[in-house]
Amino acid sequence: MSTRGPYRTGRRRREQLIDVAVGVFAELGYAGGSIRDIADRAGVSHSTLIKHFGSKENLLVAVLAEWDRRTVQAGLADVDGLAYFRRLPAVMAAHRHNRGLLELFTTIAAEASAPTHPAHAFIAQRYTRNLATLAGHLRSAVDAGDVAPMTDADIQTEVRLLTATLDGIGLQWLLDPSTDLEACVSAYVHRAIAAWQRA
Amino acid sequence: MSTRGPYRTGRRRREQLIDVAVGVFAELGYAGGSIRDIADRAGVSHSTLIKHFGSKENLLVAVLAEWDRRTVQAGLADVDGLAYFRRLPAVMAAHRHNRGLLELFTTIAAEASAPTHPAHAFIAQRYTRNLATLAGHLRSAVDAGDVAPMTDADIQTEVRLLTATLDGIGLQWLLDPSTDLEACVSAYVHRAIAAWQRA
């Protein structure tokens, strides 16, 4: 696809600003990171930064979308079926090096539970999409005969419980860094797989 | 214990204000409920309301503490050991009638994950206390022979996973009201108890 120069330049600039914002939130978290910090580090004015994204919420959403992309690329792009679930403890453990981004995600997901929040649609769609991805991997494990047959309703319950575990253990780790993220997620995933194989 | 009249009056007034605040947040949620709404309904000025609690955060914390107290009294005061865990799906289902308070709790718990947040200590202590309560009930089930022996570390992992499930499923229900809170929590609790009995 051919795109005009100015559009491409604007897009590249936007990606650079997202990179800076990811770095600021990774380091300072949701509470500590500010639009001002991002603008300062990127060497642009506050209003230029906001103009690129339309609003503070859109910038936060762009940061979360980029974080999702990196997380998947870093650990989940090459696995399918049960192997996908077995990879999750290591993916969660990697959040230890990105505390600020997990704090950003956890806080926005909670705040955006209010239907009037500007990030509500993004967060609700993100959950729908992630649940569908997990359901696809579980269905694929069923089809491969790696686990016992399951109804769609069973699969929905399983992927909701798994997602809840990942979110909730992440929150506990943010509140109490002595929480063993990897051990907890690993215990959950192993027990779930054992139950799926027995069902 | 004898207390002086003015102290008792102040305490009673504080309890009345908390009742009003619980009602406002239950109805309007964290995003929709404001200190102004609470003051208006209670027939006091904004500054009088804040004076009773010291800060907005202290008022929110008082609301959450009262909500905890009512939740426990409504469903968990009379049960011990495995019966405590079996009661959790019904307790979670009751949140359906208090969406605003679950939104308030979920949002503040996430925001307070930042160590600099004014409610951080309250939320961190609440998690420590709730994990200890759950651990006590699981230990009591072990001691009664209702489940297989477990180490303290096993019990810690179990109560962290259970807490994560309750928090995470609550968030999913806030984001998507078609989430079946009770069925998901029930599926989790039944599988956990079966695993504890087999271990």
From TrEMBL, chains A, B:
HTH tetR-type domain ranges (all copies): 11-71
A Pfam family matched in the record: TetR_N
Assigned keywords, A-Z: DNA-binding, Transcription, Transcription regulation
Ranges annotated as DNA-binding: 34-53
Bilayer-crossing regions: none
Source domain of life: Bacteria
Listed name of the protein: TetR/AcrR family transcriptional regulator
Native source species: Aquipuribacter nitratireducens
Lineage, highest ranks first: Bacteria, Bacillati, Actinomycetota, Actinomycetes, Micrococcales
